[in-house]
Amino acid sequence: xxxxxxxxELRNKERLESVEIIKxxxxxYYSYNYQILKDNKWRISVRWDNFQKKPHVDSFDENGNLxxxxxxxxxxxKEVLELIxxxxxxxxxxxxxxx
Amino acid sequence: xxxILFLWTLQNFEGINIQIKLRKxxxxxxxxxxxxxxxxxxxxxxxxxxxxxxxxxREPELVDKLMVLEYLQKGAEYKEEKISHSEKSISxxxxxxxxxxxxxxxxxxxxxxxxxxxxDRDYKNVYDDVNILFKNGLIDLNKEGKRRIPILKADNxxxxx
Lengths: 99, 161
What we know:
The complex is a heterodimer of chains A (about 100) and B (about 160). Chain A has about 100 residues and is mainly beta.
C-alpha cells in the first residue's frame, strides 16, 4: 500500500494538491484539490475525490465554504491537471457538473 | 535512514521544457510521527471519523487526514512530491547553494556556524543561503536550543530537459 501526496505549483498563487492511495496496484482513494492562495493561506476552490467510493466534485467559495457538489465519473490526476491547464482560474466559476 | 529524493518539474521555462521534481519518501520514524500528529490533533481515529461523518464535504481536509491515517495504520508507505513550474524555483539552485546542500549531505552539520566553517564561507552569506533554501523547501531547520540545524530534504536533484 502506498500513499502519495503531491503538490503541483501552477501559475502564480495557484496549486493542485493531491492525495492518492494505491493498494495492490489500484488507486482506491484520490483527492485532487485546486487551491488558490488568499491571505497567505491555501484555500480549496475545486475538489475532486472518491471518498466512500463516490466520485464527486465540490466547489468552494473564497472563504472555504462549500458552494456546490456534484457526482462525476472517476477522474485521473492527468485529467484534472489538463482541466486546470485549459480553464485556469475560470474553473472556479464554472458549472461543476461539467468538470 | 531518511530516504529523500528531490525532483521538480518546470515547464515552458523560457521556451525550454525543464523538469525538476522534489520527492520525499518517509521512513518508518517519519510515518509514525505523521500518524501521531494527526492523532494528537483529533485525539483518536474515532473522533476524526465522527467529524468527517458530521462535516463531510464541508471540511475536505479532514477526509484526506482520515484516509491517510487509516492507511498509515495499515502500514502504507508515504511519499510526498512537489512539482514546481516557476522560474524562481530553478534560480534558487546557484552553484554555492547546491554546494552547500552537497556539504550537508556528506557531513554531520550541527549548526549554521559549523556549516559556514566547513564551507570556509562568510557566516552571513551562508545564513542567507540557508534561509533561501529553507523558504523554498529544500532544507529543514531543526531547532536545538538556540541553534538551528540544517537538515537536507533531498539526496537527489534531477533536472530533465
